[in-house]
Write a structure and sequence with these properties.
The structure holds two protein chains of two kinds.
Chain A (H helix, E strand, L loop, with lengths): L1 H6 L2 H136 L3 H17 L1
Helix pairs in contact in A: 2-3
Chain B lengths: L1 H42 L3 H13 L4 E7 L4 E6 L1 E5 L3 E5 L10 E3 L2 E6 L2 E5 L19 E2 L4 H26 L8 H20 L8 H19 L10 H17 L3 H8 L6 H47 L4 H38 L6
Antiparallel strand pairs in B: 1-2, 3-4, 3-8, 5-6, 6-7
Helix pairs in contact in B: 2-8, 3-4, 3-5, 4-5, 4-9, 5-9, 6-8, 6-9, 8-9
The chains are: A mainly alpha, B mainly alpha.
Chain lengths: 166, 367
């Protein structure tokens, strides 16, 4: 300890403090500040670049996901539209069919009605004509057969038989 | 174009010459140091005492930059440094006046003599009076001389300034990416920030201590490394230097401390009142012990390293045999490599503990 105190030189201590403090101040202004700033800036730059790259990657993923979604939606829409169209087509065909059937049925019914009424009229006409004819025949037969009673009766019988057969 | 090329070539040449000069210096000094010892050995009988004195002398600061000396011819090779004394007025003169302690320097009618690396005021004959313990009793003027250590510190400071100014500038030139030697320096700066400052002080407050921590780390490291060169400087192994550094740590710690820190010292929270009273003086003592340990640790490590290394180098000259000398050379070589590690380690420990103390001074209350 005595040697230490003996070795201690105040002059050296003085210069050391002076030089060192001067050096710290000088280096702080001209070296450490710009160096640390530059390193910090660079590190911040690298961090930013990495972050933005990550963000870009995420955005890209989002975009891809979006695209996928939009594509799926479009596909679904197309499918729906096609389905609708098919439905529509089928409906139209069925409608047309039923309508046509109804029309046809109506025409057939009308035709049948016409035929029936025509038939009725014809039958009535025929009946009238047959009646007239029968009356005429009867008149002629009566005129001719009135002379022979037996013949008259025979004729009437046969004629009547014929008529009922008709 | 021509001018650009000129400056570029000059720049490259400057770099190369700096490296070359350093190389030449190292080579010259290594060989000449060894040579100097060789001649001494011839001139003196008691080699062991001489090696001991040489080591003692090396560990101390010196008023001139002696690179090596020749005892046989009493010649010193090196250059003198300015001596600045405060003795009823400022006295400035060259240390060459002392002739390495052999003569008395006369300035303005006052006589000064260099004795064991210290300047004493004497009479015209240079008489030194001793007390019974063989300590000089002469008056000692206040010595503000630019000594070998001051020159070394100044040179290291200059080197640091140019190195880190260069690094700072290279960012602007090259879009925030360092060039050249900066590529080596930048990771060290980042190391101090990420491994020393932030873990110990915390993300929020570390910034205001960064200048000090970076400066002290590189300052101690480079001075430790300079101590490994054969220039024979021992700055970080000098108690005045480590005291100054520790004092700065002490001042910064206590001047930037927050309430919580002082609360923990004078009125430790969470313990009974009696313990608070007992703990206060202990904690108060701790304030001084912490930087004191910093001072002693660096001083002792560097001094011990120098002593051991130089003793082993000295062994080479004591053995003077084909087995002993190469052995101690190998040992000295291995130890030099270890000392290189210690140079960085001590700088790291000093910075790390400083950061730890700063961190303690800034700790937020967590009770």
């Amino acid at each position: 300890m005595e040697k230490l105190i003996n070795d201690f030189s105040f002059g050296l201590f003085f210069w050391q403090i002076l030089l060192f403090v001067g050096l710290v101040l000088l280096l702080r202004k001209y070296a450490w500040k710009p160096i640390l700033e530059a390193i910090n800036n660079r590190e911040a730059g690298i961090k930013d670049a990495l972050e933005s790259a990550e963000a870009a990657r995420k955005e890209m993923q989002n975009l891809q996901a979006d695209n996928e979604r939009i594509l799926n939606e479009a596909r679904a829409e197309r499918d729906a539209m096609l389905k609708e169209a098919r439905q529509l087509k089928e409906n139209m065909i069925t409608d047309a069919k039923t309508e046509a059937q109804a029309e046809a049925d109506k025409i057939v019914a009308q035709a049948q009605a016409t035929i029936a009424s025509e038939k009725k009229a014809a039958i009535a006409d025929l009946k009238n004509q047959v009646a007239g004819l029968s009356v005429e025949i009867a008149e002629k037969v009566v005129r001719k057969e009135l002379s022979d009673k037996k013949n008259q009766l025979e004729l009437v019988d046969s004629m009547l038989g014929d008529v009922t057969l008709n | 174009m021509h001018r650009n090329l000129g400056t570029e070539i000059l720049g490259v040449m400057q770099k190369r010459t700096v490296v070359k000069i350093l190389l030449i210096f190292t080579l010259v000094f290594t060989t000449s140091n060894l040579f100097a010892k060789e001649t001494k050995e011839e001139g003196s009988g008691d080699l062991k005492t001489e090696i001991k004195e040489f080591i003692d002398h090396h560990l101390q600061d010196s008023h001139d930059f002696t690179l090596f000396s020749d005892k046989a011819t009493h010649k010193h090779y090196g250059f003198p440094l300015p001596v600045i004394l405060w003795d009823n007025g400022l006295k400035v003169f060259s240390s060459s006046k002392f002739h390495h302690g052999e003569t008395v320097a006369e300035v303005d009618g006052n006589y000064y003599k260099l004795y064991h690396s210290k300047i004493y005021k004497t009479d015209a004959e240079g008489t030194i009076n001793y007390d019974e313990d063989h300590h000089a009793t002469n008056a000692k003027p206040l010595d503000f001389s630019i000594t070998k250590n001051v020159v070394s510190m100044f040179l290291i400071g200059l080197l640091m300034f140019f190195m880190f100014r260069g690094l700072a500038k290279s960012y602007k030139k090259n879009n925030g990416i360092p060039t050249g030697v900066g590529r080596f320096l930048e990771p060290l700066v980042v190391f101090v920030r990420d491994e020393i400052a932030i873990p110990n002080i915390g993300e929020k407050k570390y910034k205001r201590y960064m200048s000090f921590l970076l400066t002290i780390f590189f300052f101690i490291w480079l001075l430790n490394l300079l101590g490994m060169t054969p220039l024979g400087v021992n700055v970080t192994g000098n108690i005045a230097v480590t005291f100054a550094l520790a004092l700065l740590v002490f001042l910064i710690t206590n001047l930037t401390a927050n309430k919580n820190y002082w609360g923990h010292i004078f009125w430790m929270p969470g313990v009974p009142t009696f313990m608070k009273i007992v703990l206060a003086p202990i904690e108060l003592l701790g304030i001084f012990i912490k930087p004191f340990s910093l001072m002693i640790r660096l001083y002792a490590n560097m001094t011990a390293g120098h002593v051991v290394l130089m003793s082993i180098v000295g062994l080479m000259f004591i053995f003077k045999s084909w087995i002993g000398s190469p052995l101690s050379f190998g040992l000295a070589f291995a130890l030099s490599i270890l000392e290189l590690l210690v140079a960085a380690l001590q700088a790291y420990i000093f910075t790390m503990l400083s950061a730890l103390y700063f961190g303690m001074a800034n700790e937020e209350a967590h009770h």
